[in-house]
Amino acid sequence: MIRFAIPVALFAVLVGFLFVGLNLDPREVPSPFIGKPAPAFDLPLLGDNEKRLTPEDMKGQVWLMNVWATWCPGCRQEHDTLLRLDQRNLAPIVGFDYKDESDKALSWLQTLGNPYQVVVEDVDGRAAIDWGVYGAPETFIIDAEGIVQYKHIGPLTDASVANDLVPVIERLKAEASL
Amino acid sequence: MKKIVGSLTLCLCLLTGLVMAGIEAKPFDDPAKESLYRQLVADLRCLVCQNQNLADSNAELAVDLRRQVHEMVTRGDTGDQVTDYMVQRYGEFVLYSPPMNARTALLWLGPIVALLFGLFVAWRVAGSRRGPEQGGVSEADVARARDLLNK
């Protein structure tokens, strides 16, 4: 009896591992920034290159940074979700226009609506490397102290906003008593 | 048939050209730096197409990261400095050969453990089959067989 039990048990363990592996997404690389200060950048604003923004300017409030571009199909997909999130006025969303063309980005926001409080332009993608960005869209949540607390990879959906983002935003706002 | 082989070969040649075209030439003043650069881009993973290294990938991000590695190597950074820079931003996942630590111990030691376990099982199985009581051949049987063969 035991002669059969051992291989069957090993097989069951293997099936268990494979089954878990089946549901893992290898594209979701855990961000090493969670719990660390937001990487610095100093980037020009879309549509007004005279003005610039750094993460320091956002200190004192819980904010979101959404990495997007007009060439990115996932960004088009999540755009309406972002608009709805913005309408709830939970936290300001900073747009991070990643390796894009200014005029295309401006007309995108004009036609589809603008969920962003402000949009910075990273034309050559250097600041994106500092943030560990490897594919748009990506969404970060940064707390009032300037610490990165959450990262969502891929297009946002209403479900992921309700289940993942909003609880984090509300917890951080409560912690900072905002 | 010849036609098919011919067109397949042509396809292959054209595709190779396409792949090579994406890898830009990077000038180096020092051959040691050039070989460090080659080694680094071969060991770092492209995060967009995860089964390719930076050297092989044509993804936009790989182009940017190659530029970054090139700049760092040119200004005299060591291999460790470049690797640390990438790990800080993208995590240990960017390394094709992950470092040995508590989290990766199973990855590194697993195959050795599995091999030892396999050897142990093989040894036990072989050991149990050798005895005469389990289908082994007794002295008397050997003598009888020799007798029959010599007839």
Describe the protein's topology:
The complex is a heterodimer of chains A (178) and B (151).
Chain A lengths: L1 H21 L20 E3 L2 E6 L9 E6 L4 H15 L5 E6 L3 H11 L5 E5 L3 H5 L7 E5 L5 E6 L4 H18 L3
Chain B lengths: L1 H20 L9 H13 L16 H15 L4 H12 L14 H26 L8 H12 L1
Helix pairs in contact in B: 2-3
Task: Write a structural description.
The complex is a heterodimer of chains A (178) and B (151). Chain A is elongated. Chain A has a single domain (29-175), classed as Glutaredoxin (3-Layer(aba) Sandwich). In chain A, strand 6 and strand 7 form a beta hairpin. Chain A has 178 residues and is of the alpha/beta class. Chain A contains 5 helices and 7 strands, in the order H-E-E-E-H-E-H-E-H-E-E-H. Chain B has 2 domains: 2-98, Helicase, Ruva Protein, domain 3 (Orthogonal Bundle), CATH 1.10.8.640; 104-150. In chain B, helix 2 packs antiparallel against helix 3 (60-74). Residues 17-22 of chain B have low confidence and may be disordered. At the A-B interface, helix 4 of A face helix 3 and helix 4 of B.
